[in-house]
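Troubleshooting log. The previous structure file for this entry was overwritten by mistake, so regenerating from the original sequence record. Sequence copied from the archived sheet and checked twice against the printout by T.R.
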Amino acid sequence: MLSLGQMVAGIAHEINNPVNFIHGNLNYAQDYIHELLTLLTLYQQHYPQPHPAIQHYLQERDIEFVRQDFPKLMNSMREGTQRIYEIVLSLRNFARLDEAELKTVDLHEGLDNTLLLLRHRLQPGVPLSPEDAGDHRGIQVLRQYGPIPPVDCYPGQLNQVFMHILSNAIDALEAAACYRKDSFIPTLRITTSCTEESACIQICDNGLGITEAIRHKIFDPFFTTKPVGKGTGLGLSISYQIIKQHRGELLCTSIPGHSTEFTIHIPLRQDSKGDSTPSTALTETSYPD
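Regenerated output below.
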């Protein structure tokens, strides 16, 4: 996990520099083209009958279309670079390489960064599964955030927990889409709240749910219900260990055929006298289960 964090942070840094260069120069490019188009308009006003060669070129290249379309092109490029910037920022925040030790952080920021990294799986327009022909309406994400003060935690590890649980929820919704194609609206609901001593994060999907026999095994190492090559069976097991290290609880409840909900309870403050370094069992490279 540490090696993965270093790689992610390095890639994010390398991408960030050229993206900032491009994004920063878009304003100058737009100003320059505006000046050129203004000059072209002045020429057309004062020389309405240009040389035949110029007239032919204007018609052949459809300059009027270029004049109208170029501002849209610039806006698309600006939105694209802004999107890359947001992804890079989320990657850096997700890795939290500079916060490998116990830190006080905003849990909502970690949840939002993780959702942004999973955005490509939440957007409409792409089939939820190979068996699902046609476009889907996307996965609806309901954020029901309550007030939570900054929490003492290992940010990189906690972000890994969010990634594992949210990825599993999306997998469950993809599977459910194969059976409920007509009226099914895949939905993720994230609810946060807190007491005087702990914060609570609930992540619920309206997928097919899991049976009681499976629910008792989901935190066991190498247990997975996915086909060979689709899951390692480590994601939820490591997530359970991470939450346990934080002196918290990771619980799972499910209504077969309807929903599955994971609940994370984590103390607002960790014991500063305890071990401030992540356990070696939690630093192995892992993938969403």
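The first helix runs from residue 2 to 46. Archived copy saved in two places this time.
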